[in-house]
Design brief:
The protein is of the alpha/beta class. It is built from 15 helices and twelve strands.
Length: about 475
Amino acid sequence: MTFPKNFLWGGATAANQLEGAYLEGGKGLNLADVLPGGKVRLNLLSQAGFDFEMDTEKYHYPNHEGIDFYHRYKEDIALFAEMGFKVFRMSIAWSRIFPNGDELEPNEEGLAFYDRVFDELHKHGIEPLVTIAHYETPLHLIKEYGGWKNRKLVEFFERYVRVIFNRYKDKVKYWLTFNEINGATHMPLFGLGFSPTSEETRLQESFQGLHHQFVASAKAVQLGHEIIPGSQIGCMLIYAPVYAFDSNPENVLYAQQEARIFNNFCGDVHVRGEYPSFINRYFKENGIELNIQDGDLELIKEGTVDFISLSYYMSRTEKKNKTPEEIGEGNLIGGVKNPYLKASDWGWEIDPVGLRIALNELYGRYQKPLMVVENGLGAYDKVEEDGSINDDYRIEYLRDHIKAMSEAIEDGVDLIGYTSWGCIDLVSASSGQYAKRYGYIYVDKHDDGSGTLERRRKKSFYWYKDVIASNGEKL
C-alpha cells in the first residue's frame, strides 16, 4: 500500500456540528441553529415551506451546544496532534464573521476566535483546510433575502471571503468554497439556504441558486490567488458512482444520465469553467431557465479551481422504473437497494470499491489533484465497563476504504490527502443526533441532552495513529 511521501492525513469537521457557543462571541444565528435534532430534521430538509423558526418547547436543538469545541479546541487539537494529523479540515461559521451576513464591517470577536484556532493548529504542525461555506448560511440572509435564490448573496459572500482571506492569508493555504455543492438540488435547505416554494419550483429555484454559487465560487478563487499567492482553492463534491441495476440498456442509460446530472454537472462548471452541453436538454425537459447576467460565464471560466475534494459515503444503484419497495431505507440521494452491499446502522450502503471507482472517474474526467475530505462510518458506540470503546467495525470500514484509495493511486490517480469525517464525535448533519458517532474520539454527550462532554480515545484512535505514522502501510 503506497501513498505519496507528503500525503495529507487528517480528519474533517464543520463548525455548526461541533463548535456550540451558538450565541457567544457576537455570533448571529445561522441555518443549523434552527434545525432540530431527531427524525423531524429529515422531514424539514425534504419538505417545502419550512419557516426557519425555533420551537424550544417542542424540539431539542443539539447544534446550539455541539461538543463545545469553541471552548475546548486546545484539548481537541492536542488529541488530533497525538494521532499525527498533517491536516485538519474545518469550516468558518459565516455568522461568526458577519452575524447577519449583510453588514459592512466584520465581527472582530469571531475573527479572533479563528485566529486562535489556526495558531493552535500551527503550534502542533497541523495544516488547516478551511471550508468557507458548510451548511451555515446566516439566518438573516435566509429570512430577508431568500437564501441563494437571491443574487445579492454573491455580493455578501464576496465581502465575507475578502475579509477572511486578508485576515488569514498567512495562516491558511488550502480552502474549499461550497461544501457538497452538487447536493443542493436534493436538499436545497442545506446548501442553498432556502426551503423550496413548492416541489414544482424546486429545480428552477435550486439551479438558479447554484448559478449564483458558481459565480461566487469563481470570485473566491480569483480573490484567493490575488490575496494569498500560492494558495490552493478547491471545490467540494458529494460523489456517488451510479451503477445500473442490471444490464438492461434502459437502466444503463438511466444510470448514466443520473450520474451526469449529480456527479458531473457541478464538477464541470468548477473545473472546466463552463456549463456542459448535456445540461441543456435537462434544463429544457424540466422547464428550467436561468437568469445569467453579462460577464457571469466569463467569470466562471476564469475562476476554475486548483483541486477537487469530495465526500464519499456510498454508491448509488439506479433502475428506470423503480417501485417504492425497491428503494433502500438509507438512500439519501436516491436509487434502489444494491443486493451485493451491506449497510450501516442508518441504512447507508457500504461500498469501498465504489471509492476506487469514484476516484478513477473523477481523475479520468478532470486530471486535477484529488482529496477525499469526508468518508466515515456513523455507528452506535458502546463504552465498556473499563472505559474502552472497541469500534472494530469502524476500523474495518476505514481500512477497506484506505485500501481502495491506495489501489486508485496505483491506478494513476493523483490523490493528495484524506480527512475522514467526524474525527471527533459531533452532531450528525442529516439526523441531528449525537448517537450517530463517527469519531476516533468519543464525546460524552447524548441525544437526551445529558453528558459531561468528556473526551475519550476509541480503539480506532490508536489504529489511525499507526496508519498515519506508517503513511498508510500499517492497516
